[in-house]
Design brief:
four-stranded mixed β-sheet, binds pyridoxal-5'-phosphate, globular, about 270 residues, 8 helices, Aspartate Aminotransferase, domain 2, 2 domains
Amino acid sequence: MLTDPHYACYPNFVRLLDGVVRTVPLRAADGFQPRSADFERAVGAETSAVMVNSPANPTGAVLDDETLSEIVGVAERADANVVSDEVYHALSDGGTEHTVLEHTDEAFVLDGFSKRFGMTGWRLGWVVAPPGHVDAVDRLAQNALISAPNFVQDAGVAALETDGEWSADVRDTYRERRDRLLDAVSEWGLDPGYTPDGAYYLLADVSDLPGSTVDVADLFLEEAGVAVTPGVGFGDRAAEYVRLSYATDEDALDEAATKLGRLLETVRD
Ligand SMILES: Cc1ncc(COP(=O)(O)O)c(C=O)c1O
C-alpha cells in the first residue's frame, strides 16, 4: 500500500515482486498529509506491506507523529509489514520528522547518505530490518549488492563524523530556498496551496497550462532551459503538477525563476 503521490520507483518495486499496488489518496488541501482513516479503509487480508515516506518525495510533506503512530496501528491490525523510507530525515523545517522506530521494532526502515549528506550517486545506504527478517535481508544484500565499495564506506564514516556540525545550516539554507521558490511559484500563478516542510521538493499546480504535465515539463525545458519533473510519474494525484527541486543554489533558482516567469507571460498572452 502506497500513498498517491509517491516516489516514482515504489510501484515498480512492488510489480517486480508480482505484488499489486493499492494507493491511499493525499490531498493538497491537507498539505499532502496522509489520513490514517484512508489507510484503515484500504487495508485488507491481502495487504502485505504498508509504505510511508516522510519527508516525502515529491510533495515535501512531513508526516506528523500521531498519524505515523496510527498508520503503524492500522498495519499491525492487518498483520502487514511497515516499510518507512526515511531517506530525507534531517532535511525538514525545524527537524520535526519522527522515525517509525519510535512506534515499533517490527518495521523496515530505508535510509541513506545521498540526501542528508549531499552524497547522491555514491550509492550508500542502509536498511533497519525487524529482527526476524535480518537473515533474509542479509542473503538478499549479499546476492544483489555484495557490498558497498570500501572507499565509499570510508566516505560514509567521514560523513557520520561531521553530522550535527552543519545540519542546522543545511536546514536554514533549504528553508530560505523553499521560501524563495514558493514566492516565485505564486508569482507564476502555479501556487499548489500548501507549504512543504521537508526534503527539497515542492509541487506546482500546472492544471491551467495547456497540455499534459509532460508537455509542460518539455515546454519549461525547451523554452526556458529549466528542468522540472512531470507529476504523472508520481501517481494519478500528481498528474496536474510538476515537481520542482530546490537542491540547487540560490543563483540558479533565481535565474530559473526569471526565465520561467518570462516564459509563462508569453504562454498566457
Ligand atoms: C523517497 C526516496 N527514496 C529513495 C531514494 C533513493 O536514493 P538513493 O538511491 O540516492 O540513495 C530517493 C531518491 O531520489 C527518494 O526520493
